[in-house]
Amino acid sequence: GSTARTISKYRPHSDIIAVTPSEETARQCSIVWGVQPVVKKGRKSTDALLNNAVATAVETGRVSNGDLIIITAGVPTGETGTTNMMKIHLVGDEIANGQGIGRGSVVGTTLVA
């Protein structure tokens, strides 16, 4: 909750989705500018927590495949005030992956029709 409140102070143009296992934290976040709280019971591992947060955001229609999102969390999980991790995450599955033959790196756009 405190990380969502801190981010909210800067009034970003993007949504702030606060996934929390606590009803109390969700109520507190609901009155903070731009924060959309979602109550979802916690997970034990960091990977499960991140996957749970992304799945919840997709299920509620707040993000969709192809969206680039930033996730903040605390390790160890479940401890208040331990936000010490930030992950930039592309929502959805990888469409294509390849290996170049040349020496340089190449970036391109993939179109699925």
UniProtKB/TrEMBL annotation:
| Gene3D superfamilies in UniProt | Pyruvate kinase, C-terminal domain
GO molecular-function annotation terms?
Answer: kinase activity; magnesium ion binding; potassium ion binding; pyruvate kinase activity
Q: Does the keyword Transmembrane apply?
A: no
Q: What is this enzyme's EC?
A: 2.7.1.40
Q: Which UniProt keywords apply?
A: Kinase, Pyruvate, Transferase
The Pyruvate kinase C-terminal domain extends over 1-89
> By its UniProt entry, which InterPro entries does this protein fall under?
Pyr_Knase, Pyrv_Knase_C, Pyrv_Knase_C_sf
This protein's name: Pyruvate kinase
Which taxonomic lineage does the organism of this UniProt entry have? Bacteria, Pseudomonadati, Pseudomonadota, Gammaproteobacteria, Enterobacterales
